[in-house]
Amino acid sequence: MGDLTHLVAVNVLMMGGANLCCMWAGLAKSFGSLLAARIFMGIAVAPADTVAPNVIGEIFFTHQRGRAMGCYTVCICLGPIIGGMSGGYIAGTKGLAWIHWVNVILAAILLVACATLVPETLFQRFQTTPSSQNEDLIKSEGELDDETVENVASTSINDNLNQQTIYGSMLKLRKYEGNFVQKFLAPWKTLRLPGVWMVMFWYAGLVGGVVTITTVGPSLIAAPPYLWGNNSGLIMTGGIIGAILGFVATNLSADRVIVTGSKLQGNSFVEPEDRLPIAIPGLFLATTGLWTFGFCAQNLGPEHMWIGMQFGIGMLCFGLMQAPSIGFNYVSALNHE
């Protein structure tokens, strides 16, 4: 099995764990039990930030990863924003426990979707390829003509495909063929690269800002002088607009430098650093958005300050769209060199 098979298997396993942890949180009778459930929920959903980008890197080519990563990022960014907007209504009408039961429903949907919508990743590739069969025949019988080689190749592929179906391979338990220790140590070895640290702090800073704002923002708007109540989550509306605009901008520019550079140079080789200048405007806008939200949140006296908070989170989400699309692809290309 390829790397993609193992990545999806880990994602399915952890989504199942997230489902159980969400049920635990919904049934918790004490704050300690709820806190423990939330800790394990955070661990269980970690593949969304670790495994998913690797899956995208395995599926898409270099000149396609920017747009694909943009789709992934907009979903990651809109998750806490839409959750913050809907959480107030759910808790206000159904109670706090129903927030966790909604998580159970969503986790179950993702578990089934991840296990069933990517069946090709569970296909067991046959070990003997047509080229290796041809080499064995050449060694044993001498040179082969083109017709013989073509027949060997076509027959071997059809036979293997007829003998093994996708769903048959899903029901079989197989031995792990990789090096577990090597796979475990691989992410830690990348810390010796300065580019990894740059992208790590870049992404962590912007995501941390979004998480902080989605937590603090509704609390500020629910208090005087605004008193939005269950509608306090609407302060995140600017984040949705910023994320959508950032997705459009990233989709148009993330891979353009790769395609354009390849055409100008007459080959497919482009330096990983060529992607980085595209992210400078978005990073500047995101940093300015954090300042804007902070200044407006600190001075809530005027009734119009909520507008500045909306613009601040919108600017932050716009810049966040480019962090994985540019940064993750830069690190991925850097590690391949």
TrEMBL record:
It is found in: Membrane. The chain crosses the membrane at residues 7-27, 39-57, 69-92, 98-118, 199-221, 233-254, 275-294, 306-331. The keyword Transmembrane applies. GO terms for cellular component: plasma membrane. InterPro entries: MFS (IPR011701), MFS_trans_sf (IPR036259). It comes from the Eukaryota. One of its GO terms (molecular function) is transmembrane transporter activity. It holds the Pfam family MFS_1. Keywords: Membrane, Transmembrane, Transmembrane helix. Its main location: membrane. The keyword Transmembrane helix applies. It is a multi-pass membrane protein. This is Major facilitator superfamily (MFS) profile domain-containing protein.
